[in-house]
Amino acid sequence: MAEENSSAPQEYAPGLNGNDLIIDGxxxxxxxxxxxxxxxxxxxxxxxxARTKFQDVLVFxxxxxxxxLVLDGVIQVTExxxxxxxxxxxxxPLFAHPNPKKVLVIGGGDGGVxxxxxxxxxxxxxxxxEIDGEVIDVSKKYLPSLAKGYEDPRVSVKVMDGAVFMDQNxxxxxxxxxxSSDPVGPASVLFETPFYSAMYxxxxxxxxxxxxxxxxxxxxxxxxxxxxxIKKFYTDVGYAYTTIPTYPSGQIGFIIATKRRGKxxxxxxxxxxxxxxxxxxxxxxxxxxxFILPQFAKRAIFE
Length: 303
Known about the structure:
Distance between the termini: 49 Å
Structural class: alpha/beta
Number of strands: 13
Strand content: 25-35%
Radius of gyration: 18 Å
Shape: globular
């Protein structure tokens, strides 16, 4: 049975208790957005559990996937496969831009997206808006391989609502990356048209946004109306995806939209050899391939 850190609080505010999802030494991820299926990981020990102002935060050491970060019962990161998500959500928009200098990351408190953005030498300023500062603190303590992104001197941290920050900073960013959890709880507004409108206003001319776009096997009913709505003001809207074993159905997509710029399916720049050597998933070839969707998804989203 998993061991709980003795320093963790014994009482929690009303809401989901992450420890309740650990049964007989296994963590079971069940969610309303993937009914009838579950993901289970064997737990070696629980190292952190607390309820913040916004959500339930659980970190455990797994037997085969390293450290695992769970928010409101949903796996956000495992050390074993996180690179498949972090690299793609960061490098698709950044390599599709000819010269990104100012980048905004919304969410992504674990620091993994920051780590990848920092690999772009042209970037002069990286701002992260994370509404839950406790996620940042927990990640720095238990996920240092991701949270190393905070060490880059170009990074500034804003613990606040990303929509409010964008309203205060219009026509400001070349690339905006929204690394959100699923559209329940505090992240739900990040999947609504007004949020995409706020991103558009915060983009510079020629800018690109890239957001977590859920799963083609589970969420086409969420993706299709959102894409249709934001097509009304973005110049181009595309959809790409990555494969990652510990996300629902082993796949997650990205909505990539531009402001007075064309499609993003062909990278305009390529990683330097020394940068490519550090990457485990992204390459110029997989950049383009990630936009090629199975026919059922292509029809459902774009036809």
